[in-house]
Amino acid sequence: MKNLNLLASLLLVFLLSSSMLLADEKPESKEIPMKMPENVKAIVDNSCFGCHNTDSRNEDAREHLDFKTMHQLSDIKKLGALKEIREVIEENEMPPEKFLEKRPEKELTDEQRQLLIDWVKKESMALMNKEK
Ligand code: HEC
User: Fold this and answer.
1) pTM exceeding 0.90
2) Which of 100, 115, 116, 125 is most buried (most C-beta within 10 Å)?
């Protein structure tokens, strides 16, 4: 009986700590300060943000594009970043193929591609109109 209690407490500790770990991850993954519709944010969060953020271990990715600081770019630079995003989506270059071999669930669907491109277009138009 004592052993059973011990086992139960160990299990409880394990469950608690793992749920705390999960809870920790959540707010972090939602931290995309760039203003974008929720459905677009969900796609970026799921398929891009892991590599393209300030704390990413993927230096190459984070130097090319950082979704955590993108909102702080000048309008011109933001337009440039949006243009690059559109290009990599249209040419099916992101997420990288090598990564998709391991995480096929991260591949964008046609619908997600379209949503991203529509957002890029809309956001770019808004920025260009602001420039005038
Ligand atoms: C597994 C990590 C990883 C993921 C996930 C990922 N990228 Fe990248 N990305 C990279 C790396 C590495 C580079 C730089 C080297 C290159 O261009 O291939 C890059 C480069 C880029 C560039 C710059 C391209 C250029 O020509 O300079 C853009 C824009 C980009 N990614 C957008 C995205 C978008 C949008 C997503 C989500 C749909 C995404 N990435 C998902 C790793 C990633």
Assistant:
1) no
2) 116
CB 34 within 8 A of CB 70: yes
Enumerate the domain spans of the chain.
Answer: 1-30, 32-131
Query: Is residue 127 in contact with ligand 1, taking CB distance under 6 Å?
Result: no
Q: Which phi and psi angles does 107 have, rounded to 5°?
A: -65, 140
Closest CA to 123 of 42, 32, 36: 36
Output the residue whose Cα is nearest ligand 1's atom 29.
Answer: 85
Q: What percent of the chain has pLDDT over 70?
A: 82
Instruction: Measure 112 CA to ligand 1 centroid, in angstroms.
Output: 16
